[in-house]
Amino acid sequence: RSSYSCCYFVLPCCFFDFHGKYSRRQSKKTQYREYLDFVAQVGFVCGFHVEEDCLRIPSTKRVCLIGKSRTYPPTDCAVIDKQITQYINSRQTCAVVTRDERVGFNHKEHSDGVHKGAGSELPDNETAGTIWMAGFQPREKVEQIRNCASLPRDFVDDVVLSVANLLLNATPQKSCSNMHGENGNTWNQGESLSLKEVAEHLNKETLKRLKSEYGGLQTLLKNSHQVFEVLNGRVHIRDWRREKPSRKNKPDVKRRLSAEAFKTRLCWFFIHHPDGCSLPSESCPYAHGTEELR
């Protein structure tokens, strides 16, 4: 409804109507096929020639619907817009009746494009050009990233350092024998703590900031893959000596990308861990000092 020149592409996935979950009406079709037909019907009612295509993507929901041209001339925009308004109102009425579980509701009245009968009793939306549907709230044009990736770097670094020190000092040093057997040295891996225990040691301001992110503290720690591993709700300091070696038969593309990233970031353990890095410089994928950075 934004303009006559508007075209659209939609990849239907979750089964939703305008006002809630889509209610099935035809048992002879699969739920997916019935929903695709419903979305196609919406496009047709809105005056589009609706085309269907199948995308080459690794998903079971890969049928898309495309509206590239209209079924009516520009002069009929006002008439069609009124038709669309009635259709939207009919879907809203259908949702309300379904929730109330009223007996005797005839779905057929609402499945043939333009709503008839009860639609004439609904008030027309006189400002359809500006208010498309009562109570409808479109999402923002720019979707806010809330996976901790947009948090300031210094804030993330402070949380990582705080959590790491918490794990290292949680109990008397838990030393791991150095697998390389270098003069019997030991490397402190610290203790593991639950996410709840870690959160209890962070200040309220930090927790409040993390709460606004999806996944919060857990997401931030998982993003800090170099330093931590989060398993079954418990946080551990990652010991890179125990990481499984990469497969020799790894695809060329992945092998090339891995090689390109080698030594392009500083090693957190070399800088911050009291025992330094558990790996010798030649084995660590991260740079031991700025002189090694590529």
UniProtKB/TrEMBL annotation:
InterPro entries cross-referenced by the UniProt entry: tRNA_uracil_MeTrfase (IPR011671), Znf_CCCH (IPR000571)
Keywords of the record: Cytoplasm, Metal-binding, Methyltransferase, S-adenosyl-L-methionine, Transferase, tRNA processing, Zinc, Zinc-finger
Annotated zinc fingers (C3H1-type), start-end: 261-291
One biological process term in Gene Ontology: tRNA methylation
Catalyzed reaction equations: uridine(44) in tRNA(Ser) + S-adenosyl-L-methionine = 2'-O-methyluridine(44) in tRNA(Ser) + S-adenosyl-L-homocysteine + H(+)
Subcellular location(s) of the protein: Cytoplasm
Keyword Metal-binding: yes
Alphabetized GO MF terms: tRNA(Ser) (uridine(44)-2'-O-)-methyltransferase activity; zinc ion binding
Domain (C3H1-type): residue spans on this chain: 261-291
Enzyme Commission designation: 2.1.1.211
Domain of life (superkingdom): Eukaryota
GO cellular component: cytoplasm
Main function: Adenosyl-L-methionine (AdoMet)-dependent tRNA (uracil-O(2)-)-methyltransferase.
Family, per entry: Belongs to the TRM44 family.
Protein name: tRNA (uracil-O(2)-)-methyltransferase
